[in-house]
Each structure stands twice: as C-alpha cells, then as structure tokens.
Design a protein that fits this description.
The complex is a heterodimer of chains A (167) and B (100). With 167 residues, chain A is an all-alpha fold. Chain A has 2 domains: 80 residues, Four Helix Bundle (Hemerythrin (Met), subunit A) (Up-down Bundle); 40 residues. Chain A contains 7 helices and no strands. The longest helix of chain A has 28 residues. Chain B has 100 residues and is mainly alpha-helical. Chain B has one domain: Helix Hairpins (Orthogonal Bundle). The relative contact order of chain B is 0.13. Classes of the chains: A mainly alpha (167), B mainly alpha (100). Chains A and B meet through helix 1, helix 2, helix 3, helix 5 and helix 6 of A and helix 1, helix 2 and helix 3 of B.
Chain lengths: 167, 100
C-alpha cells in the first residue's frame, strides 16, 4: 500500500468516525467537537489532493469561524442533553435505512461510472492558489461580488434577528 | 495517487451520515450541524472532481459553498437564538406552531 493511500484511509476513517460520533453523542457540544474532527480530516484530504488553498480556507472558516459560532451559541443558550420521545425514536430505523440506501446508491453509481473520470487523472500539479485567484477575480468576478453582497445581507439579517426588541 | 472513486464514495458516506443525523437528531443546533456535514461532503466531491478533471472550477465552487455556508450559519444561529428565546426549548418537536 502506497503512502498516499494509507494517509487517505487514516483520514477518511477519522472523518467517518467523527460523523458517526456526531450522531451518537447526546450533548450538542460533543457533537460540535466531533464535527470539528470531521472538518480537520477533510482539510487533510484536500491537502492530499493538492488543494492547499481550499484546505487552509476549510480550517480557517469552517474549523475556526463557523464552529466557534456554533460553540458560542451552544454555550449562550446553555443547551442541555437532547431528549427523545417515543415517536422520535421511531424515526431512527427508517432514517438509517434511507440514509444507507442513499449513500449506497450514490456510491454504486459513482463506482460504475468512475472509469471515465479516472482516465483524465494525473494532469500534474497545477499551482492551485494562483489559478484559483485568477479564476475568482477574472472569470467569476461577478459571482464573487454577489457573494460579498450576500454576506452583507446575512450580517444585517443576523443582527435584526438576534437583537432584543425595545419596548 | 488515490483513485477519485474513493473520495467520491467517502463523500457519499458522509452525506448519508449527514442525512441520517438530520432525520434522527432532535436538537435544533445538532440538526444545523448535520447540514454543515452534508455541505462538507459535497465540497469533498467538488474538490475530488476538480483534481480528477485537472480544472480549478471545482475549487472555486467550494469557495462559494463555504461563503454561503458561513452566511447560512450566521442567519440560522440567529433564528435558533430567537426560537430559544421565544419557546424556551431547543427540541424541534416542541416547535410545532404550524402543526395542526
């Protein structure tokens, strides 16, 4: 087994274990910490694929900013252990079946049609950060500006939603 | 070199786990986290295909997905704070105003 394959299996096992732990844990803070494990493992996979810029953004924005926001809200609301009613326990088996069917269907489809994708592999190391910056600021400049507008609207919305009403 | 299939199958597994968490969990914050898990699985597929096809479009899309996820997290957590303030619970079964 070659080294990249070994690294891939270690990181993917870490990601899957983190995702399963997210489901198994009862307290939201434990789920949040498992999600951070998944995100860091995915950042490692991006590095393995040679997408170092995406890996850095994944760590900074997902593992840093978004998860800090989650942990902050969990602590702010003093969220406790989640409670399950008998009706919601009923959702477990069908949900597991549906999710397994979905994952198996997607994986099977990919596994069958993957030959054509794989044929195009190994185009050599493309300098990804430079290429991404050129694409973002040339080909995708209008969508990029639109996302800044989206962020602005999101900030306004979050501020309006979370403020206390004066009365 | 790791085959692209492996990445995409891992992405499918993670997406399936996210769907299951979305259906099974009852805490609204955890449900929100499972949405983030699904977005991450999609990002993995994007980067895998970007690498397989030798084009950078996929990685640019990942950037946009991350931006949208950040905006969504800000607004969604604001809504969660509102729910907790108005109904004193984070259990989605107690948030049943639209239910007959």
């Amino acid at each position: 087994m070659t080294t990249p394959l070994l690294v891939f299996f270690v990181l993917s096992a870490l990601a899957v274990i983190g995702a399963v732990n997210l489901i198994l844990q009862k307290h939201p803070i434990h789920s949040a910490l498992s999600l951070i494990v998944v995100m860091v493992a995915l950042a490692g996979l991006y590095l393995l694929m040679g997408a170092e810029f995406v890996a850095a953004v994944q760590i900074i924005v997902y593992g840093g900013a978004i998860m800090v926001l989650f942990v902050f809200v969990i602590m702010l609301l003093n969220a406790g252990v989640e409670e399950h009613t008998s009706l919601s326990k009923l959702a477990g088996p069908p949900g597991l079946l549906l999710a397994a069917a979905l994952a198996a269907f997607v994986a099977a489809t990919i596994a069958r049609s993957g030959a054509s994708v794989q044929a195009a592999t190994q185009t050599g190391a493309l300098s990804s950060t430079k290429g991404i910056s050129e694409m973002v600021f040339k080909d995708f400049v209008y969508p990029f500006e639109l996302t800044s507008f989206l962020i602005l609207v999101a900030i306004l919305g979050a501020t309006v939603l979370a403020q206390r009403e004066k009365s | 070199m790791v085959p692209t299939n492996y990445y995409v199958i891992l992405s499918a597994i993670l997406f399936g786990l996210g769907v299951f968490a979305f259906i099974f969990k009852r805490n609204v914050i955890t449900i929100f986290m499972s949405i983030e898990l699904m977005l991450n699985a999609v990002n993995l597929a994007f980067v895998a295909f970007s690498q397989a096809l030798g084009k950078l479009d996929g990685q640019v899309f990942v950037l946009f997905v991350i931006v949208v996820a950040a905006a969504e997290a800000a607004v969604g957590l604001g809504i969660i704070i509102l729910i907790a303030r108005n109904r004193q619970t984070l259990n989605v079964e107690r948030v049943d105003l639209l239910k007959l």
